[in-house]
Amino acid sequence: MIIAHAEFDMDSNCVWARTSEGNIVIVDCDAYEKAYADGMYQRSELDWLIYNAPREYVQLALTGNVKSYLQNCSHRLIG
Fold it and tell me: Counting beta carbons within 10 angstroms of the beta carbon of residue 21, is it exposed (0 to 12), middle (13 to 18) or buried (19 or more)?
């Protein structure tokens, strides 16, 4: 599935995305962070994605690769 457009809505704290097929995907950022982020650094990384790369954020949610992504980011941030 290809994400054609994604945008963060600060009022609902959700990322709204449209796929190339015309489907709409909504990711609840609060629920997503509670489910996957184990600490401050992982939450910060997800927040950065929300504001700067919402398409990639939705793609992570759809593919389920968020744990490995966050583990790689944690190593980059810490050491």
Answer: exposed
Q: Distance from CA of residue 52 to its chain's centroid?
A: 10
- Residue 66 CB neighbours (<10 A): 19
So where are the chain's domains?
A: 3-78
* Strand order from edge to edge, sheet including 3-9: 3-9, 14-19, 24-28
pTM over 0.70? The answer is yes
**Residue 79: pLDDT band by 50, 70, 90 thresholds?**
very low
Strand bridging mode 3-9 / 24-28: unpaired
Instruction: Report pLDDT digits (tens) over 15-52.
Output: 999 999 999 999 999 998 898 888 888 888 899 999 99
